[in-house]
Amino acid sequence: MKFILKLWSIGFVFFCYACEKDVSITPTSDFNGTVYIEGLLSPGESPSIFVSSSVPFMDKKVKPQEVFARGAAVSITNRGAAEMLVADSVFDKFRCRWVPFYQGNRIAEFGERYDLTVVYAGKTYTASTTISQPKPVINEISYVGEFFDVYGGHDGVKVIMTDAPGPGDHYRFQMNRKIDRTVAHAHVLDVITENCTGTDEFWTYDIGRTVFSDEGNDGGRLDFLAEVSFEYSEGDSAWVHIQSLDKASAKFYQDLDDQLISILNPFVEPVFLKSSIEGGAVGVFGSMVLSDSVLFIYPTDNP
Fold it and tell me: What does the alpha-carbon distance between residue 143 and residue 141 come to, in Å, rounded to a whole number?
């Protein structure tokens, strides 16, 4: 019986690959998009809140400026004083496109609570965060020629730090580096051919997809292994940070990475994002405390 089941399974796989049929799909006109909100406050920085509306799966308008929630009323309240954020944008020099968001002027402070309110298309969304995470301190950075995770084998950067006493700390890798158009993205974005910068260099901010926790190792040594997104050459320099995230933000970004894994691997259980936004929006409003930057230079004797 087992032998027959195996043969049926193999035959089914070949059958699926052998069949090909064109299917015409007409998108529905009654699609109701979901609002997506994302923003992390950081001490010493003014707030930037990204607000967008989802579109049908086969919609051609998917660029940031096309899905931006224009006309939203976005405010952040601290100590009873509310600030209305204004629409702004930054030019993504790698993808050659504008990325709009809502920008505030008030500088976030450590130890303070902030309440976010977004009113868009007749609906109200709210969230809050308190910036109370300990500031990470990087002890050591080194290059790793090969390490393995669920995505396969990589080279990357190893960061060593000592966790602050007290459970419930969550961390994420960040690398700031100047590149030019000769540098490709290490994954799917290496097919981008736009050239809006010529030979000029520009800053990239490479955020690690994995969230690290001090669970089971409170106050101990933590080793982070991170694969960077942009290609590099021997002798390239970069500035490395560690982000300390609040619990809700850490959970959201970890779920986001787990969801990507489930999409790539059909044998992994699907993951549903748990939003920290009240009112039905998907996304996260939280806070992070950034470590001081540490200069890292890629070695010239890589294996």
Answer: 7
* Cα 25 off chain centre by: 31
Which residue, 78, 205, 175, is CA-closest to 131? 78
As given in the structure block, the two tokens for residue 93 are 């020099």
pLDDT tens figures, 112-150: 999 999 999 999 999 999 999 999 999 999 999 888 766
> What letter represents residue 53's amino acid?
S
Compute the Cα dihedral for 56, 57, 58, 61 and give only its sign: positive
Residues 147 and 156: beta-carbon distance below 8 Å: yes
Task: Tell me: pLDDT of 238 over 80.
Answer: yes
- Separation of CA 46 from chain center: 19
185-202 average pLDDT score: 75
Largest pairwise CA distance in the chain: 72
Please state, in angstroms and as integers, the Cα–Cα distance from residue 95 to each residue in 159, 178, 189, 191, 195, following that order.
28, 15, 9, 11, 9
pTM score, whole prediction: 0.84
Q: Summarize pLDDT for 12-61 with one digit per residue, the tens.
A: 444 454 566 776 666 555 667 799 999 999 999 999 999 999 888 778 88
What size, in residues, is the chain? 303
Phi-psi category of residue 153: left, alpha or beta, with phi > 0 → left and psi -120 to 50 → alpha = beta
Q: Which residues pair with 289 in a beta bridge?
A: 244
For residues 235 and 300, the answer to whether their CB atoms sit within 8 Å is yes
One-letter amino acid for residue 209 of the chain = R
Distance CA 3, CA 271 (A): 34
Q: How close are the terminal C-alpha atoms of the chain, in Å?
A: 50
Q: 86 near 102, Cβ under 8 Å?
A: yes
